[in-house]
Amino acid sequence: MDDVQVQRILQNPKFKQMVSKKSTLSWTLTIIMLVVYVGFMLLVGYNKEFLMSSFSGGVTTWGIPLGLGIIVLSFVLCGVYSYIANNTLDQLTAEAMKEVEAIAHEKSNTNNSNVSGGESV
């Protein structure tokens, strides 16, 4: 693959759309997870009393459900990513790959015809 093909692929609207949507989704979910996790760490660092206080008047403190909530959130975000990737991004990726393959084959077919057309026996 030469530089011209690479540039045509990078400028392809379907390829750009696929990269943009994947990037937006990945960064959105990453930011959600980081905000929640950093928020929990800040809570641990600056308000230990709240985390040590009883959740229900018994032995369970607020730290337990909040910590479990972060773990559950990570599984939920993985599920959200999988659902969106399987229902939206895979179709977009397939469409983009068809166009990318067409660009790649276009150049290789041109090279093959030049090689075979230039030879005479």
From TrEMBL:
One of the Pfam families matching this protein, by short name: DUF485
GO CC entries: plasma membrane
Transmembrane segments annotated in the record for this chain: 24-44, 64-84
Alphabetic keyword roster: Membrane, Transmembrane, Transmembrane helix
Stored PANTHER family: INNER MEMBRANE PROTEIN YJCH
Protein name, UniProt field: Inner membrane protein yjcH
Source organism per UniProt: Acinetobacter gerneri DSM 14967 = CIP 107464 = MTCC 9824
